[in-house]
Design goal:
Blueprint lengths: L2 E5 L10 E5 L4 E2 L11 E3 L5 E7 L5 E6 L5 E5 L6 E3 L1 H10 L15
Antiparallel strand pairs: 1-2, 3-8, 4-5, 4-8, 5-6, 6-7
Length: about 110
């Protein structure tokens, strides 16, 4: 779901109102079959990853970490991973995972 924010121009001309698109949060995955080979996802250790294998049930996902190149194994059902766009994966790599303020993190890499 996208959110929109109305911005009033400097001059009080209501016919010139502009819409700005607010960035949506990465989609949390909690069921099988939502991530495919070639998709990007955030592993349960918060690494942006490229999916390289999904089992037949679509539950177990294997990806290559864009942070350190290690293989990450996650469950689409149990890990609470998030599906990422390529732009989000790049942002995660540069700046760390986004919108995780309420989560406790062990072994922070960013």
């Amino acid at each position: 779901m996208l959110a929109f924010h109305l911005v009033k121009p400097e001059k009080a001309c209501w016919h010139n109102i502009q819409l700005l698109v607010v960035k949506k949060m990465a989609d949390r995955i909690n069921s099988a079959g939502k991530i495919n080979v070639g998709d990007y996802f955030e592993s349960c250790s918060f690494h942006p990853c490229l999916c390289i294998e999904v089992d037949e049930s679509g539950r177990n996902i294997e990806g290559i970490s864009l942070i350190d190149g290690h293989i990450q194994n996650c469950s689409a059902v149990h890990c609470g991973i998030r599906k990422l766009t390529i732009d989000e994966a790049i942002e995660w790599k540069k700046s760390g995972p986004q919108e995780i303020e309420d989560q406790e993190v062990d072994n922070q890499w960013w």
